[in-house]
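Handout, section B. The chain below has 249 residues.
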Amino acid sequence: MLITQSLASFGRYCIFICRVFAMPDKWKVTGRRFLAEISKLGLDSIPLVIIISLFIGAVIAIQMQLNIISPVVPAYTVGLATRDIVLLEFSNSILCLILAGKVGSNIASEIGTMRVTEQIDALEIMGVNSCNFLVWPKVTAFIFFMPFLVIISITMAFIGGYCVALFTDVISVSRYVYGLQTMFIEWYVWYGLIKSIVFAFIIATVSSYFGYYVKGGALQVGRASTNAVVSSSILILLFDVLLTKLMLQ
């Protein structure tokens, strides 16, 4: 029974995606909605990304120093470990898990509210592809802006670790900066950006799917929002494992 329901949901999701990425009827209207979604989903997420990344970078630097106390391990290892943790996992996977809660719930509740108030039905009656009209700008805007959020997250996490070195005696600034520069692998940056784009697609499409197929009232909208966040988080963790296996061999 569960397998049958899962397959049915996956099939409906695939049909939903095909409708989303159909050719827009009016590019001018779609372009305006795209810019509006960049502001709502992308720009409005910057303060949250800055605050979280700043503190996480500081915490990583402190914990690395406290746990790597050995005369054999060079002092600059703190900066090196902080850099690799941020580039490989935090700035893409953990950040997207956080954004799944903010952006995903926002998308699911907005589209779900339009469904229960019959606004989507009105669009269908007028002959508008409601999936494309409502979801396409959200998906493309979030995918487009996600790399910028990742870059901001990386920068602020490094600054957080730098502040720890600057204002405490945990590690010297010179050794921390040297650790950030030592044995730098450029592919780690591209790896994080590619993962973040995949995760952005998952968050936007899964949340839109749950919101679009809401049935009932306000209680079901809230439930759909919760299901969207949970499902997006599980898929992000699953694809995190798969992409790590494929891209870091």
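Note. The two ends are 38 Å apart (CA to CA). Compare this with the example in section A.
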